[in-house]
Amino acid sequence: MMSPGTLGVVFLLAIVSLATCAQNSEARVKLENGLKSMVYLSPKITLHPGLVSNKTYYDIEFPKGHIAVKSFNAEVVDEAGDPVSLQEIYVHHWVAVRYYQRKGVENDRIIAGNSGLCDHGRSQFFGMGSETRKTSTYVPDPYGIEVGNPVKVPVGYEEKWMFDIHAIDTRGAVDAIGCNECRCNLFNVTEDKDGMPLRPNYVGGLYCCYDGTQCKVKNGLQSVERNVYFKYTVKWVDWSDSVIPVKVFILDVTDTWQNTGIHNCLFEYEVEKSATNNYTNTRRSRVRFPTAGDVIYGFAQQYFGGIGSALYGEDGRVICSSKPIYGKGKNIGDEAGYIVGMSTCYPKPGSVKIAKGESITLESYYSSKKKHTGVLGLFYILIHGESNVPILLWGVALFGLGLFVAVLVAHQRRKQNEDEYQSIAT
Length: 426
Ligand SMILES: *[C@@H]1O[C@H](CO)[C@@H](O)[C@H](O)[C@H]1NC(C)=O
Ligand SMILES: *[C@@H]1O[C@H](CO)[C@@H](O)[C@H](O)[C@H]1NC(C)=O
Ligand SMILES: *[C@@H]1O[C@H](CO)[C@@H](O)[C@H](O)[C@H]1NC(C)=O
Known about the structure:
With 426 residues, this protein is α+β, with helices and mostly antiparallel strands. Helix content is 17%, strand content 36%. It has one domain. It contains five helices and 25 strands. The strands form six sheets. Strands 1, 2, 3, 5, 9, 11 and 12 form a seven-stranded mixed sheet that branches. The longest helix is centred in the C-terminal third of the chain and has 36 residues, at 390-425. It is globular, with a radius of gyration of 27 Å. The site of one 2-acetamido-2-deoxy-beta-D-glucopyranose has 4 residues, from strand 15.
């Protein structure tokens, strides 16, 4: 047992070191053009040639407090902090998910996801793949993604963030693109991550490239371990009345809603090699949009072979379209044949609206010159929902009501006075 004195000293030390920690991370917050900005590193990811890493990292570092996130940028770096080429470490995908952690109960977590639409998964606020480096994530003023609002956290819980990061080390790979498309034959797997046999005719996709699987590398290759980190930069402003919150929606082209009435997202699909000279493969899904609002920002997510994607309104108008940017050289951020960015939409606020209950069609286009396995078609949009407008309307309404009451009271008083006057007179 420690004596009360020692306990006191330990306690004091703990407080002091906590305070220094807080100070250190506070000191790392940069302020530029009114935005706060902070650079963080994920836990270490250890890879060797051919290896797949797909891990969940709970309680990652994230700005504290009630804030509006303005951007979330990232890239993979090595131990020296230098950017790593997609030709060596392929960022298949990553997602940053918010959750509520029950204090003192490690396995009690509630996902505090985005606004939809998939019933399971796709609950991230931020997430991309190889396009991470060159895809703008900036949320234009006066909008922001509201997080850390203490009023929304259930009692006994605290808000935290986690990452899922899926990366493939393709150094020395026999067929790097094949590894990145998760071709089952290159991984020599016959079972999925839960030990279930693969579906017959399943030739590629996420069921073949789970954590710890190994893609085929050249014979005699020396296996050299490598540690990398996911480096992410968050920019934000403190929450205030001048920030207008936007909702995050992710539409998935594999959503079965139009056939099943539920948002069952299959996550991945396959593009067959075309038998004709039409090399555009189109996949479509239709959903009914749950809320009305203005589109503030949007971009699509695709894998190898992707040639663009678009969201259409019920009347056929284009809500947003987004195209991949393929790298052309050897430089980091311009890796030939890789999708290094996606174009984004920033409609003039108020110019692109979605109506409540509107039928929205998502189309995802891939080149079918070759077969592609394990592809995806997502569309990420930020919506300023109409539920925020009534704050102003409510103000006007309350003011009106106040005026009405005041007039009524004044009128009653006068009437009363008149009555009294009359009673006196009579
Ligand atoms: C593929 O897996 C089987 C058993 O799962 C194993 O016997 C064989 O050596 C593996 N082949 C390669 C090339 O790793
Ligand atoms: C990667 O890990 C996440 C979290 O455990 C899991 O949900 C997902 O299915 C995994 N993906 C693959 C391809 O194994
Ligand atoms: C090519 O096929 C797609 C269907 O995948 C179709 O939407 C498109 O209109 C076709 N293009 C031409 C030029 O026929």
